[in-house]
Amino acid sequence: MAWALTPLTEEQREVQRVAREFAEREIAPFADQWDREQHFEPSIVAKLGELGFLGMLLPEQYDGLGLDMLTYLVALEEIATVDASIAVMMSVHNSLPTQMILRWGTDAQKERFLRPMARGDLLGAFALSEPDAGSDAASLRAQAVRDGECWVLNGTKAWVSSGPAAGVIVAMARTDSPGDRRGARGISAFILTPDLPGFHVGKKEDKMGLRASPTVQLVFDNLRVPAGNLLGGEGSGFIYAMQSLDNGRLGIAAQAIGIAEAALRNASRYAGERRQFGKPIKEYQAIQFKLADIATRVSAGRALLHAAATAKDRGEHVTQFSAMAKLFASETAMAATQEAIQIFGGYGYVKDYPVERLFRDAKVTEIYEGTSEIQRIVIARELYSRGGN
Ligand SMILES: Cc1cc2nc3c(=O)[nH]c(=O)nc-3n(C[C@H](O)[C@H](O)[C@H](O)COP(=O)(O)OP(=O)(O)OC[C@H]3O[C@@H](n4cnc5c(N)ncnc54)[C@H](O)[C@@H]3O)c2cc1C
Q: Do the beta carbons of residue 57 and residue 100 sit within 8 Å?
């Protein structure tokens, strides 16, 4: 199979082994059924919490494992190899809301939310997108108006992963006024809980892939949020969201590499078993070349991801690196799953074999947390802003 080009430490290999065994034991036997039935399995959240996998990047002070980014991504890849729906839940939770509260929350907010989030008692979600604000997220329209000790929110957030299961949602809304629009600087971040009056779970999307990860609209109808739930500075929410997406994109890259690795394993195994014209199809060079190309891309994608994670762990600015890792890994996942289906022939096109689900799951990695076009824009912008021409 494809290997990590940078050697992992003993601790990283141990976390990888724990993740792999957990995924094989607790997720693999059910993944196809959950996909077919669009079933979100809450017991997995509790079990991931017990393992510490929902507080991987949180300090021990908040019941987290206090791990570095690379170790977290190694674990995430293992989960994604078995079930990309569980991986996105884990990625969003660890990379976005927990990190946002840790980085910009008050002591009171950290005390209230981080321990239950690390233990898996509160699952986190991230609500930036809206029906009319996707790539151009700064054009979002959900409006927050201050009313005494509360903010009152109205609007609709779209595509919220884990939305109906979440106990904490970091949501972005405008706090500038219609007469004084401030663009991205008019957006603030709020910590929402589903018990707040005026919080409603709206339409559930019927998706092509990631069907065991519920994706919903959230509707705010005069949603009253205590003023103490504003996260960080008023007007800073969009900046927080963009900075957090540097982490998020590394998580999605790990998810994509996990999907591609699963495609490689399945295709190479099948090529050894399937016989046509009197011999296993792996003996045909046409099939060998496909496997060689997938293996090369998976290893290159993983190397880029690990390099980006290591840079992040050194405290470097990784906006460009994480966009590159996400872009390359997601295109690798698409290419690998498409070729895996080709190697399976007709059997790749039906649900009896796993590559059909992998293909459907791979596509969204080119779309969410910034489409591939947006990653290219980010990469090019960074070229110029970092002393380019
Ligand atoms: C399964 C799923 C889960 C998601 N989970 C979350 C979540 O948890 N939280 C959340 O906030 N969001 C989430 N999203 C939303 C996701 O981030 C957006 O779908 C994504 O950012 C793209 O926005 P859009 O769908 O509105 O597409 P659009 O922005 O309308 O883009 C349409 C097309 O135009 C292209 N395009 C747009 N602008 C440009 C440009 N300037 N230059 C070149 N091409 C451009 C795009 O690349 C794309 O190909 C999720 C989406 C999906 C599908």
A: no
Mutate to test the pocket of ligand 1, among 368, 369, 376, 377 (most ligand atoms within 8 A of CB): 368
Question: What three-state secondary structure class fits 306?
Answer: helix
Among candidate residues 107, 123, 139, the one where a domain is terminated: 123
Contacts of 304 (CB under 8 A, 6+ apart): 253, 321, 324, 325, 328, 329
Q: pTM for the complete prediction?
A: 0.97
Containing structural domain, residue 156 = 125-235
Distance CA 127, CA 164 (A): 12
* Residues 171 and 212 grouped into a single domain: yes
Q: What is the CATH number of the domain that holds 61?
A: 1.10.540.10
369 is catalytic: yes
Write out pLDDT tens, residues 84-96.
999 999 999 999 9
Domain-ending residue, one of 200, 235, 270: 235
Q: Tell whether 5 is covered by a domain.
A: no
Neighbours of 2 (CB within 10 A): 20
Assess if residue 2 is contained within a domain: no
* Residue in 50, 369, 373, 382 annotated catalytic: 369
Which of 166, 339, 215 is closest to 267 using CA atoms?
A: 339
Distance 368 CA to ligand 1 centre (A): 6
Using CA atoms, how far apart are residues 51 and 70, in angstroms rounded to an integer?
Answer: 18
Residue 163 and residue 105 share a domain: no
Residue 187 CA to residue 173 CA, distance in Å, equals 5
Mean pLDDT, the chain, integer:
97
